[in-house]
Amino acid sequence: MTVLKTSLRNFFAHKGRMALSAVAVLLSVAFVSGTLVFTDTMNTTFDKLFAVTSTDVKITPKEKEDDGFASQTGKPDTLPASTLAQVRKVEGVAFAEGAVSLDSVTVVDKENKSLGPTGGAPTVVGNWTRNDLRAMEIGSGHAPRGPTEMMVDRQTADKQKLRIGDELRTISAVGDHRARISGIVDIKVTNPGAALFFYDTPTAQRELLGTEGLFTYIDITAAGGVTDEQLKKRVAGALGGDLKILTAKEQTDEGRADVAEFLDVMRYAMLGFAGIAFLVGIFLIVNTFSMLVAQRTREIGLMRAIGSSRQQVNRSVLVESLFLGIVGSVAGVAAGVGLAVGLMEMMGAVGMSLSTEDLTVKWTTPAVGLVLGVVVTVVAAYVPARRAGKVSPMAALRDAGTPADGRSGWVRASIGLLLTGAGAAALSVTTQVEKAADGSLFLGVGIFLTLLGFVVFGPVLAGVVVRALSAVVLRFFGPVGRMAERNALRNPRRTGATGTALMIGLALVACLSVVGASMVASANKEVDRSVGADFIIQTGTGQPVLPQAREALARAEGIGHITDVRLVQAEITAPDGRTAKESLVATDPTYPKDLRREMTEGDQSSAYGKDAIVIGDEYAKKHKVKVGDTLTVDFAEGAGAPARLKVTGIASDDSSMDQGAKYISTETARSHIPAEKFPLSFMVLAAAEDGQQKRAQEALKTSLAEYPQYKVRDQTDFKEDLQAQIDTLLNIVYGLLALAIVVAVLGVVNTLALSVVERTREIGLLRAIGLSRRQLRRMIRLESVVIALFGALLGLGLGLGWGTAAQQLLALEGLKVLEIPWPTISAVFVGSAFVGLIAALVPAFRAGRMNVLNAIATD
């Protein structure tokens, strides 16, 4: 009980100083809790959607395992009306209906503006069915009654400002179709963001599939007393054939599996950044308790002198950390719910709609947050608590402070050097491996060991780096600058821990900046070296180039040639007997002009002979294939026997463009794939007539004005889009890393605040002999700046090393240019100085307000 009272008294006596540590715990726990609430809410949203859209039994055409792409024909596999008739005769079927649903379509308004979402959710067009009434209801207007009418979901209507009577155009592989909105549909559950459009059944069949009497799937409702499994067996027995038949549970499980990968990536990525924040928070907590213990040395000595045991002193500090962990974690869990709501709003801005009605807070979320926050806080406080327990009564009463072991500095330095050296060796191995997969483990080990080494070695480095920084930064401020330097060097362990907290976030920023800049520079160099086409035409969603859009391109003026690029799925058997499923690139004879591929044997244009194929040298080495050998190719959509293609060339895979691609001619593909299953182009390349580049680009854009899903990009546009994509990804990562940097800044604030209290008497004496308030504040600000710059130097240096090693792995994938983004690195370094200034504002202000006489009288 005495320990508890002492801990509570000390906790509330230093509540202001504990608050900053509690905020660090709060932020870290909030990120974990918010991530869990957010992903659980997304799971709830999709589970409700799957529950209302899943029928007792559903029949679809059998999926092809080798079809790794969206339908390249623009048309889905279908079921004939005769299948629906057979299903209706099966015993136990209460109701069955055919449905049409297609997501490889685009819907535009009268101004040719695409009405689909931009954040990855699909645009789905189909027929209005009885099963749709389970999840939706017509909120206004009426269901489509003929080919000139269609319905739209209310979410899309509100977002795009659509009204009943507006004319829309549906663009599919079959052609373009115009209809007016006859009704608006309300969805009973949360729609995660898909744009939904409905025709009547005959219109949907004609305009999406090309003919009536076809369906993309069949929904079946079981009669009373018949289970889903029983009905599935009966339907399978009656139909046989190559069909996929799923019960409601299997449909839900399949739907969950489809979104699980996306949710898992998001969950683990965000938890990873939360882990970084926790790591940084550990430094803050260790520093806080170390300084509090040092300030209470005399108090601890008195406790020991009146009979408190070492274990009781130790326990007293740990109980304080327990209180801190509980307070910070409880507040963090609550803040996590708010963070989850904020993330939901942010997802809404990019096209994914989530409702707070589905907000899901499982009991495991607060449990994980509390356990994590409390455990991390107590573990971080263990070393200071143990150090407090070692204070002898006589030493403490003499103000000797906490015990210091002279050997510990040498031991720390030796361990730090050993870890850093081992990490550097691992990073060095990364640059020497021949395969990227082999080097990734060494890269991870190298990053971990060098980070750990710098953390251990930080206090030793503090003395050297701070002196060097002071010579450059602080000497201009005269005596005040020298005092700031002395204060920063007074406790190297404290300065090292504070700077190291900032180092972690900035090291990751520097590493990712190097990787991102190197990727862009390498890709740009590869585009300049390899791409001969003036223009690249494709969608941003992977949809194929539809026939009507391709015809429009052919009418553009000023074009020298146009090259279609198609992906063909096949199973390839090498001469060594090994078989693998591959994607072949089927192109026109002009392709070598549009994308130049370095050849190790033969000629790239040789792929355009009859039944010829050009392969990559990695495949050739793996299967010991040489020019003149024959590969057996079984086309996924082929109607006859497997083709035998002669290897006429081997291309170098030492490139990021078309790395690993296998080329055949469009004519070879046509001779083995039926016309109705022949894939559309996934990309079109075009070259302008000499001197007509600007005219040709305008002509291409004009020709595609009615098809807004396609982008016409020249090489400059292509590079800018690549830069924008990488910048967007990096900005997201930087935003997540900002949490760790905020926690590190709190650490600087806390260290300075406690340091000011620790030096109260000294500050009072300095004021008494003439140091002005302005000079005092400047001294504290300069101390903060030099600590922040120390952390920045360590972080940026470490990050540059990590980024350089990572780029060497990327070089094995064809991204060979190492680009150091010096403007970004410089901006981060300068920004760190401002971070130091901001962190010092409150401590400097409080120091300046000290009463001189009271400060001198402080014991």
Which key phrases capture this entry?
about 850 residues, alpha+beta, 4 domains, 10-stranded mixed β-sheet, 8-stranded mixed β-sheet, 26 helices, 24 strands, about 55% helix, globular, transmembrane helix
Task: Give an overview in words.
Belongs to the ABC-4 integral membrane protein family. The protein is of the alpha+beta class and 859 residues long. The protein folds into four domains: 1-56 and 273-403, no CATH class; 63-241, no CATH class; 463-532 and 715-859, no CATH class; 544-708, no CATH class. It is 57% helix and 16% strand. The strands form four sheets. Strands 15, 16, 17, 18, 19, 20, 21, 22, 23 and 24 form a ten-stranded mixed β-sheet that branches. Strands 4, 5, 6, 7, 8, 9, 10 and 11 form an eight-stranded mixed β-sheet that branches. β16 (559-573) and β17 form a beta hairpin. The radius of gyration is 34 Å and the shape is globular. Residues 65-70 and 400-406 have low confidence and may be disordered.
